[in-house]
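stage 2 :: seqdesign
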């Protein structure tokens, strides 16, 4: 036991001296592993951050959210996307009346424009909606009040501001009751929405103005068709029932024959989540693929340098064998050096990966989630790379003939 410990100690000392003797070469050898481990940590951090952001975005849409949008249509036997919406206000109210699985419904139109308030101005999106919009989006008013049914019927020129718009137009925080001009049309501010934050794509959800859809259609857009109808199912279990009921009703109202192509399309909260999850997964696989390639390249670099080291130290190997070292001792010697380079590269890669992830998150304002499991896995892989790619050179060194090694020049 004591002899074994002495041998392991000697192997460690000799291996560290060999690595220290060629500092630059050792560092360059480990560079591939450094880059690979850093790539793994950064890619996992980006993927986890995006997944968390997607989940937050889906939740911010509201409870049991359903979107009904203009869809493709067939003209002259050709299937094409419908640029003209076939959705109407009556469709929305029919859904509210005749679809028992639907709890809330709101027509929705959207435009954009320059907003002026006194000497301040701001460009933003203007949404025309119904009174159920706050219930569907789970988005309440933090100051003032939302407009009412009477404002919808009369097409009143009233608006509710997102916090970003309110802060830019009214820095002193006195937005409620003020007059703003939207495309030169005066609107009275009735309230300010609660802060929602950024979306998955980095856009500001609070950079928005909400107004009665009747006012937006008549005063700002000059059209009666809706850009979208949004709805909320009565419960999570009834989302699919609600979509089936809406599909049946709109096919009847739009006189679409059985088996015919619908002129509308629907997306539920779950479908949006699944679609985004697939995109996130594809991005993760791409980034991990790059990281794996970097690790493999790093491993090949270690194997290459260790083979060169075996050639350079052939005479040293012969002398050690001549004075009693066995093949397994030489194998452990070179395997230790390869693993040490991998561990060194893994440690530097972990520090580099965490640093790059935090720097990227700070500079790009992109969500990053650094996973301890990813760090452990990346480090374990770097050690495995050292064992795998270091074994062949170590085995080659252990099989050298002592006499031939001593004769080597």
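stage 2 :: out
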């Amino acid at each position: 036991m004591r002899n074994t410990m002495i041998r392991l100690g000697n192997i460690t000392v000799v291996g560290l001296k060999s690595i220290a003797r060629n500092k630059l070469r050792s560092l360059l050898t480990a560079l591939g592993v450094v880059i690979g481990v850093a790539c793994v940590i950064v890619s996992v951090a980006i993927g986890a951050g995006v997944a968390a952001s997607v989940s937050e975005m889906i939740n911010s849409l509201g409870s049991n959210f359903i979107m009904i949008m203009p869809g493709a249509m067939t003209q002259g036997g050709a299937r094409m996307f419908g640029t003209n919406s076939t959705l109407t206000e009556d469709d929305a109210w029919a859904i509210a009346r005749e679809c028992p699985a639907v709890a809330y419904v709101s027509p929705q139109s959207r435009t954009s424009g320059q907003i002026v308030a006194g000497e301040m101005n701001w460009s933003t999106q203007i949404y025309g909606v119904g009174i159920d919009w706050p219930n569907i989006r789970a988005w309440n008013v933090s100051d003032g009040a939302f407009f009412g049914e009477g404002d919808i019927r009369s097409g009143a020129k009233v608006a509710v501001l997102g916090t970003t718009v309110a802060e830019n137009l009214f820095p002193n925080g006195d937005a409620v009751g003020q007059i703003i001009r939207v495309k030169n049309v005066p609107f009275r501010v009735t309230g300010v929405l609660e802060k929602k934050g950024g979306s998955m794509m980095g856009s500001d959800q609070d950079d928005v103005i909400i107004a009665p859809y009747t006012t937006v259609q008549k005063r700002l857009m000059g059209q009666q068709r809706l850009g979208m109808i949004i709805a909320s199912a009565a419960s999570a279990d009834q989302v699919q029932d609600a979509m089936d009921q809406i599909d049946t009703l709109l096919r009847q109202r739009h006189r679409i024959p059985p088996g015919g192509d619908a002129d509308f399309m629907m997306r539920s909260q779950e479908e949006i989540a699944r679609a985004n999850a697939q995109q996130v997964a594809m991005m993760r696989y791409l980034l991990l693929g790059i990281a794996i390639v970097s690790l493999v390249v790093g491993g090949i670099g270690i194997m290459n340098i260790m083979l060169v080291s075996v050639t350079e130290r052939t005479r040293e190997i012969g002398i050690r064998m001549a004075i009693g070292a066995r093949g397994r001792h030489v194998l452990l010697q070179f395997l230790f050096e390869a693993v040490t380079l991998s561990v060194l590269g893994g440690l530097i890669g972990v520090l580099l990966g965490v640093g790059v992830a935090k720097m990227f998150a700070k500079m790009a304002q992109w969500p990053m989630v650094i996973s301890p499991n990813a760090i452990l896995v990346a480090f374990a892989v770097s050690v495995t790379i050292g064992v795998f790619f270091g074994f062949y050179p170590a085995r080659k060194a252990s099989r050298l003939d002592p006499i031939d090694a001593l004769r080597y020049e």
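stage 3 :: structure notes
- DSSP finds 13 helices and twelve strands in the chain.
- Residues 49 and 368 are 4 Å apart (CA to CA).
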